[in-house]
Amino acid sequence: MTAPTQSKSAAAIDAAAATGRAAFIGYLPAGYPDKETCIQAAIALIEGGADILEVGIPYSDPVMDGPVIQQATTEVLARGFRISEVFDIVRAVTEATGAAVLVMTYYNIIDRMGAEEFARRLAEAGGAGAITPDLIPDEAADWIAATDKYGLDRVFLSAPTSSPERAELVARSSRGFVYGVSIMGVTGARESVSAVAEEVVAASKSAGAPRVCVGLGVSSRSHVEEIGSYADGVIVGTALVAALRDGGAEAVGQLARELSGNS
Amino acid sequence: MTTQYRDASGPYFGDYGGRWMPESLVAALDEVAETFTAAKADPAFTQEYFRLCREYTGRPSLLTEAKRFAAEAGQARIFLKREDLNHTGSHKINNVLGQALIARRLGKTRLIAETGAGQHGVATATAAALFGMECVVYMGAADTQRQALNVARMQLLGAQVVPVDHGAQTLKDAINEALRDWVASVETTHYVLGTVAGPHPFPEMVRWFHQVIGEEAREQVLTQTGQLPDAVAACVGGGSNAIGIFHGFLDDPTVALYGFEAGGEGVETGRHASAITLGRSGVLHGARSYLMQDEDGQTVDSHSISAGLDYPSVGPQHAYLSDQGRVTYQPVTDAECMSAFESLCRTEGIIPAIESAHALAGAARLSAEWGSDGAEKVIIVNLSGRGDKDVATAARWFDLLPEQDVEDQSEESAAPNTGVQA
Prior knowledge:
Protein name (chain B): Tryptophan synthase beta chain
CATH architecture of the largest domain in chain B: 3-Layer(aba) Sandwich
Radius of gyration of chain A: 16 Å
Cofactor (chain B): pyridoxal 5'-phosphate
Subunit structure (chain B): Tetramer of two alpha and two beta chains.
Largest sheet of chain A: 9 strands, parallel
Keywords (chain B): Amino-acid biosynthesis, Aromatic amino acid biosynthesis, Lyase, Pyridoxal phosphate, Tryptophan biosynthesis
Distance between the termini of chain A: 40 Å
Helix content of chain A: 40-55%
Oligomer: heterodimer
Region (Disordered) (chain B): 403-422
Structural class of chain A: alpha/beta
Number of strands of chain B: 14
CATH topology of the largest domain in chain B: Rossmann fold
């Protein structure tokens, strides 16, 4: 095991914990609605209170994404988005804010470039690591080797349906934190966050995960407070993407302040 | 007989296969795998499966010699494995009945499926009706237009058909949407994947339910000709009918195996669905296999006149068999396919599915290449489905209908108006 101090996202989570709160992790799709606005929105998100930025790489077949994020990423792909843009965004946001910036990507994007080359370029851009929603540790030998080599975080998902053995595998294979899937379903804001979220966190912690952050369905300050009472971090995606769509970078900053209780 | 290739089990076929899937679905995949393994070793299960094949599907399907079709192509004898005569009109019923039995064993009450040409959707709707289960079929919006008759057919059988208007609106997008449904509904729902792609155990399980095609064909050709065939030809989209018939002959080294991919407007145009011919490894829908993708790893939209072959990847065992050189995969263009389609209609009185016509075209090409060497040779073509569903597409291709009639027909169809033309 690599020492946790090497992990940028673990450091951000621990810094939030030191002030008595859970970390706030905000998701935005790379290059939406365009590269410059995306960078401005990401900076506004971090200045508004996010501890970690999650930059989603638009992908042709996003099976874990609900309609809002799909619509956004489809638009980005339609304007001729290329992967190199992601590294530009990671670099710009990291340089401007010093925050931990993770990419969230379906694995074929990494596979096509090669795990080693992808990790090298991400590390070179100052990125903290990657969340890989359709990669399970069982298939991740190349990615684990590459992230070890470049000191990057690798965040695997633990689900309500994960057995204790699988929760243990996910905890052992992850670095930075474990992404606890709070509901069985795709991304999208929901009225309430299901009670299973707390169980997923408990299961993951008892399987050995030092840090568990919860995502899928989080859309309000009350969700953030509720989840923050038992998880190490709260991940918000769809609500921020909708804000960006409707009100640009300014609206993202405003929502970030609301969600983080800074408004 | 060696068993070098037969009965290969997942999760990996060489470098291919595996489980490139969200963690949320792993427990369900484990449950399906365990249930399938137990079921195929349980005589009560296999007896029930083969009873349904016999008494519901109408198996064994015939092996028909196509003398007049063969004579137009060259000198080889050509036999057709008549999966088109199965109940619901294609090989797809073999897999669907098996998976419905698995779903029942799992205690699931709802079946979901993706469909391209509609054949798998019709088969799943049929099984759901037979087993008294709820059924939702996801179908690309473009395909609901190309295959309006099959949409109505599924609705008649009590299924809900959901047109998918994301992406290319074809088979791959229907699979994405079915996966989204499954992640949210896995407690009550079994996903009846229609081909030998997807995460383990689907490639192995779907093949197992289609192996009956090759087992029957091998026995029938020995009885009818006294010899093994020189070649077996099948069309390959995801590759379920192909693996089903190939399996019977995989370890017969004298039998050449040919998989014919959809060449669309020609591989050189980029508008095709020939994933193996293109030769780029990647992961999509849960499996590592050959995948039509660009330099960044984005899936490239496939193109084919045949909705059922319009898929940018292929089952992982096919990728492996290609690398091993055991099966030869070649593209067949829309034009070649439709020429064989027309030929079979006129010479044999059989209207094939456009998917299957790719295999017919490939076999005709093979016989032509053999020339007089083909005189003593035998080819089996897997006629995976019948062409009733394709009459409108074929009528347009051959300009059999005045423009006004074509428009009238599409207006009357059950397909939603998405403004997208197939």
